[in-house]
TrEMBL record:
This is Carboxypeptidase Q. It holds the Pfam family Peptidase_M28. GO terms for molecular function: carboxypeptidase activity; metal ion binding; metallodipeptidase activity. It comes from Hymenobacter actinosclerus. Residues 268-454 form the Peptidase M28 domain.
Length: 465
């Protein structure tokens, strides 16, 4: 007898699955799992809601910097959207967040002894102080914090330190290149101030060569003078470097009006489906609701938020009620403080909650590749046993690695931290820029990602760890 078309892939997969000892049989994927996961993907691809939800979040609300009116609107939107899903519970979790404001658009130009000034595309780094009017100073170019530390004091004092180390293009994983170059953005201003500099200019963290400056958080050190810090576009950085070689005495004029205001009350938005068999065991899946203010916060991290909500909708709509409680969490303030992630973990610990796993999507909404897992080796092996189920969908690359900033504070509470992993080659072209807009998101890639996340949540809920 010919099998129904729906069951043929499931049977083929079952024949390929490894035979495992009876003691671990409960962890082995089954043909039924293959069929159920196919149902999840079918629902996502035919009737997915992630893309339309993202359209509203980015188009009607836009950039959502912590403490801003837009962030408050996003909280209301997240709560209302999850309530419409008919979840068992939707609620807000209060958290105090930083309130840094950019102010008027930043201005910068290169000034030489002769000729007209050359404008530079810059933006203030998050948390920076303003310039208090126009700041004009000479420039010293360095490639690293170590090079700065080795310079004689008279080469740095009274100048703007220009950190011009590019991201390494040789790394296949662009996140690795981003991480390696990030120290100059995070710590450059403090290091420059220690040497008597009046400010810092930092090459944007991207492999793209364009005129978009990339913002991002920076930090000061207690007892060290706070000096302005700005990101400069890669095109502008290359131009400034070339002009410095021709005229080491040129100066840069910088004007920024950013400032830090008192902390503001905000919220994590949480929706959950109670587990049918083990309601006290919790699986968290989330993204961060806040974003930088330059663009619409589409890939960073609107996509992660809508995918997390979609994961719960897919389980509910397909009738695959989870055996363990599943929560979608829209975290507030990942970009410049991680207050939401820390508050969520703090309350989870205070309530003595049993977190089985936490999953995060914060690498954009591009084509799914798999998952990064931060857990004990035995737990990693249990999750890796499910890889064959994801092979038909191109998301079977499971590896140990960093899972995410928002769920990081749950380390030690959850058995596994899991980061949704997608193609990263284009992500840092738009990361933290005015170019991070809805039109950069592909509907099919986004919905496939939400389905991949829902499929792993389904398995975690069914088998546990």
């Amino acid at each position: 007898m010919m099998l129904p078309a729906l069951l043929r892939p499931a049977l083929a997969l079952a024949l390929l699955l490894p035979v495992v000892p009876l003691a671990t049989q409960a962890q082995a994927p089954t043909a039924t799992d293959s069929v159920n996961i196919r149902r999840i993907y079918d629902e996502a691809l035919a009737r997915g809601q992630s893309y339309d939800n993202l359209r509203y979040l980015t188009g009607q609300i836009g950039g959502r910097l912590s403490g801003s009116p837009q962030a408050a609107q996003a909280v209301q939107w997240g709560q209302t959207t999850m309530e419409k899903l008919g979840l068992d519970r939707v609620y807000l979790q209060e958290v105090m967040v930083p309130h840094w404001v950019r102010g008027k658009p930043e201005k910068a130009s290169i000034r030489g002894d002769k000729g007209k000034g050359v404008n530079l595309s810059v933006c203030a780094l998050g948390g920076s102080v303003g310039t208090g009017g126009k700041l004009r100073a000479g420039v010293v170019e360095v490639q690293s914090l170590a090079e700065l530390a080795a310079l004689p004091e008279d080469k740095v004092k009274g100048k703007l330190v220009f950190f011009n180390r590019p991201m390494n293009p040789l790394h296949i994983e662009t996140g690795r290149a981003y991480g390696e170059a990030g120290d100059q953005r995070r710590s450059g201003a403090a290091a420059a101030a220690k040497r008597g500099a009046v400010g810092a200019l930092v090459r944007s963290l991207t492999l793209a060569h364009d005129d978009f400056p990339h913002t991002g958080t920076m930090s000061y050190q207690e007892g060290v003078t706070k000096v302005p810090a700005a990101a400069i576009s890669t095109k502008g950085a290359d131009e400034l470097s070339q002009l410095l070689k021709a005229d080491p005495n040129l100066s840069v004029e910088l004007e920024m009006s950013c400032q830090t205001l008192p902390d503001v009350k905000s919220y994590n938005v949480i929706g959950e489906i109670k587990g049918s068999k083990f309601p006290d065991q919790i699986i968290t899946v989330g993204g961060h609701l806040d974003s930088w203010d330059l663009g619409q916060g589409a890939h960073d991290d609107g996509t992660g938020c809508v995918q997390s909500m979609e994961a719960l909708r897919l389980l509910k709509t397909t009738g695959l009620r989870p055996e363990r409680t599943v929560r979608a969490v829209l975290f507030m303030n990942e970009e410049n403080g991680n207050r939401g992630g820390m508050k969520y973990a703090e309350i989870a610990k205070a309530n003595n909650e049993n977190h089985l796993a936490a999953m995060e999507s914060d690498g954009g909404g591009f084509t799914p590749r798999g998952f990064n897992i931060d857990a004990a080796p035995a737990v990693v092996r249990k999750i890796e046993a499910w890889q064959p189920l994801f092979a038909p969908y191109g998301s079977s690359q499971f590896a140990q690695g960093h899972a995410g900033t928002d769920i990081g504070p749950l380390k030690g509470q959850a058995k596994a931290l899991v980061g949704y992993d997608c193609d990263s080659q284009r992500y840092f072209d738009i990361h933290h820029t005015a170019a991070d807009t809805f039109d950069k998101v592909n509907r099919r890639e986004l919905e496939l990602g939400g389905a991949s996340m829902a499929a792993l949540v389904y398995l975690l809920s069914k088998y546990g760890l």
